Amino acid sequence: MNPERSETEANDAGSGGRADPGPGRRICVDVGEARVGVAVSDPAPILASPLTTLKRDKSRKSDLDRLAELVREYEVVEIVVGLPVTLAGRHGPAADMARSYSDALDARTGDVPVRLSDERLTTVTATRMLSDRGIRGRRQRDVVDQAAAVEILQSWLDARARSE
């Protein structure tokens, strides 16, 4: 992906030009070095909820296999992958990792479009929200990736609803 792409273009990346599939569940993935946070929407799709945190498995790719299973299990019509963009709007190594991950996920999920979405500050927001709720330390590490995925997906769903 061109590092100078706009947020709108980033949201459509990896979808192969496929149009919005309409109603149905969406899954969102927040990819990190060690963990992958996963959130899912309701079928409407209006509300994002935490689903699970997967351990990254860079050698066997079992996390990607599990995500493909979740896509089938939840009858997902669209996948959103968080794209870490710097505050200056640039793409660095973390964005390259997210793009590679979205490509690998796209290869496993067939006709389900995979889209990238700007995830600036979502982990910071999720961490602050969890701290405000008294969740700290190891308990926070276990769920912060899910909470970040919820933040990414909810923002994406809200933007989608505004554009309809």
Question: What can you see in these coordinates?
Answer:
The protein is an alpha/beta fold and 164 residues long. The protein has a single domain (25-162), classed as Nucleotidyltransferase, domain 5. 44% of the residues lie in helices and 21% in strands. It contains five helices and five strands, in the order αβββαβαβαα. Strand 4 (76-83), helix 3 (93-108) and strand 5 (114-118) form a beta-alpha-beta unit. The two termini are 26 Å apart. It comes from Actinopolyspora xinjiangensis. It is found in: Cytoplasm.
Rg, please?
Answer: 15 Å
Query: Biggest β-sheet, characterized?
Result: 5 strands, mixed
What is the number of helices?
5
CATH superfamily: YqgF/RNase H-like domain
N- to C-terminal separation? Answer: 26 Å
According to CATH, what is the topology? Nucleotidyltransferase, domain 5
- Output the strand order for the largest sheet: 3-2-1-4-5
Name the structural class. Answer: alpha/beta
- Sequence stretches where pLDDT stays below 50 over 5 or more residues: 1-16
Q: Output the helix-strand order.
A: HEEEHEHEHH
